[in-house]
Amino acid sequence: MGNDASQRPTMCICTVGTGTAGRYSNLAQGIVHAMLQRRPGRCCLTPSRHSESETLADLVTEALEAQGLPCCRHGAFSDPDDLLGCRNEMRRIIREVRTRYPEVNIVLNPTSGTKQMTAGAVLAAVDEGVDAVEFISGERADGVVKTGTERVVRVDPRRIIARQTARNALSLVEHGAYRGAERILEPYADLFPRFLALARALGFWGRFAYRRALRAVPPGDAFANLRKTLNDLANAPLLSLERAADMAAFADRALLEAGEPEEALAVLYRLAELLGKVRLHELGVDVEHPTPGNIDQVLRPPKPLFDKISGLLRADSIPFLGVATLYELLGAAGEPLPDRIRGDSLTWQLLQQRHETRYGHGVRFVDPAHVRELHSRIVRAATGQWPHFPDLVQKFRFPNIHPLIQEELDHV
Fold this sequence. Notes:
The strands form two sheets. A six-stranded mixed β-sheet has the order 3-2-1-4-5-8, with helices on both faces. Strands 6-7 form a two-stranded antiparallel sheet. Helices cover 56% and strands 9% of the residues. The protein has helices at 27-38, 51-66, 83-100, 115-128, 157-174, 178-185, 193-206, 210-216, 224-235, 241-256, 261-283, 292-299, 303-312, 323-332, 337-340, 345-352, 368-385, 389-395, 402-410; strands spanning 10-16, 42-47, 71-73, 105-109, 132-137, 140-141, 144-145, 151-155. It has 412 residues and is of the alpha/beta class. The protein is built from 19 helices and eight strands. The mean pLDDT is 90. It has three domains: 5-155, Hypothetical protein VC1899 like domain (Restriction endonuclease-like) (Rossmann fold, 3-Layer(aba) Sandwich), CATH 3.40.50; 160-233, Serine Threonine Protein Phosphatase 5, Tetratricopeptide repeat; 236-405, no CATH class. α3 crosses α4, α7 (193-206) packs antiparallel against α8 (210-216) and α10 packs antiparallel against α11.
């Protein structure tokens, strides 16, 4: 016999109550009929400590074994009116059965017993991850199932908690924990394929992996706008206002959703750097491969600054222009952007806090209010240079995912 779960024998754990009187019902026979219809590999009965419950369990055991169905007693509910107690006792029983019979699929039938026994057993089944939950149904008379009409109805226990899992995933997404949402949705990929794909796509987008995000977007017209947005970002040059606006939107999410002001500050620092590079690129400087000759030809900086740049870009080093140097060059060229960022003492002071955090060279934390102020100042500075910048930031905000996944949630 292989490891395929469908090929493994079944152990049915069945609760046993005291029975509800009815002219057409017999509890013991009802359980027997249901178990013979089901024909598990073995039946495990769990009564309560009530003497009538134990007597019924003995009758059911005798009848099932007479029909060739192995049956045993395992555990008992000490207080059938204590829901949480029933839950804990059934959890222990499931674990013990799983340890003793590791080769079986466990199915729970909690139909018989008090409402607390049934509810507690179902909760335990969800907690412990049994393979299925089954109930005895049939024609009813006097409020109970008529003996001889029993049929077994199966429920996938995953579906009992799937919706709550989706709510938890929504909360994670709303707080920027996209990978966490993806991980808890993975066991329910068959129930929430769109939601899982969307969490994965947003996770890649949050890492600026635009093409991976684009590939992860679910199919369908509902996601057409998301695909277009990601396609625009994927095809935007590295030195572009589109990439800069996405960084501004990311910083906003890191601050408001994820509650990570240090990460938001680090992104804002990179945003200030990128804005300076974009403007230099617009002026004709080869920012990605800067050379003293190109900078001198385009900007004509003063000799002391040119000598400084030449030293930074000596032939045996990696050509790189830091944020301070970028704005020094732009300022020397008479550009207004440096006045709004490096020339604004508070903006520059707030930017420098990045060096003292774990994203720079220290371990200090920052005040979220300071980061919020810096975000507003940098966006205003960019808007002064590029008036349509706020519209781009708005374009690259993450979508409201609720309407995109509501259909899946409604069908679980």
